[in-house]
Design brief:
Strand order of the largest sheet: 1-2-3-4-5-7-6
Structural class: alpha+beta
Number of strands: 7
Distance between the termini: 40 Å
Radius of gyration: 16 Å
Mean pLDDT: 93
Order of helices and strands: EHHEEEHEHEE
Helix content: 25-40%
Length: 188
């Protein structure tokens, strides 16, 4: 029997809060991301972006009107997520891509679920109609399960499109509707 997807904001009770990211949070965000760049296939980046790079990425999401969120526990940033444009061509303007990263060692505590759930809820309040997850590595079972829990469905896999750590890496694609999705035309 398949698990019923959680509603976007239904996350396990936890000792953390999800809030809007501030520029002052970006050094912690950069440290979380650096772990994945250097040690995992969740991202295909091979060189760790600087704090300034991460500040620019946050600004890009905010300029789009999309959320950039952090999870904070006991005064420490323990995860972050954001939405960015799926592609730059105008016809894609109602589609977003999500990115979610949780501090090493804190998986399974509901941080990712809370972050992605809040991201989805906030994006549904905007003009967007689809969210796409571009997941690094078919073996990234945690990310695939997280997205599935929150209503994403697998829509395909790009085989061997990345090369990192001396091996070819797949990119699973997952997608979920935001709000009414394609059941109605956008307002603008």
């Amino acid at each position: 029997m398949a698990d019923k997807p959680h509603s976007p904001r239904s996350a396990p009770a936890a000792e953390f809060v999800v809030r809007d990211a501030r520029e002052a949070d970006m050094p912690a965000v950069q440290r979380i991301y650096a772990h994945y760049v250097l040690n995992a296939l969740a991202t295909f980046e091979e060189a760790t972006p600087t704090v300034e790079d991460m500040i620019a990425r946050r600004r890009s999401a905010l300029d789009l009107g999309a959320p950039y969120l952090v999870a904070e526990m006991a005064g420490q940033i323990v995860g972050y997520c954001y939405a960015s444009g799926y592609h730059s061509r105008r016809a894609y303007r109602y589609a977003l891509e999500d990115s979610v990263y949780v501090a090493a060692g804190l998986g399974g505590r509901g941080v990712g679920t809370a972050l992605l759930g809040e991201l989805i809820a906030r994006c549904e309040a905007g003009p967007w109609r689809q969210m796409v997850a571009i997941i690094g590595d078919s073996g990234n079972h945690g990310s695939i399960a997280l997205h599935r829990r929150l209503g994403f469905e697998p829509v395909g896999t790009l085989r061997s499109v990345g090369f990192k750590f001396g091996r070819w890496v797949d990119t699973p694609l997952m997608q979920r509707a935001l709000g009414p999705g394609d059941r109605s035309l956008p307002l603008a």
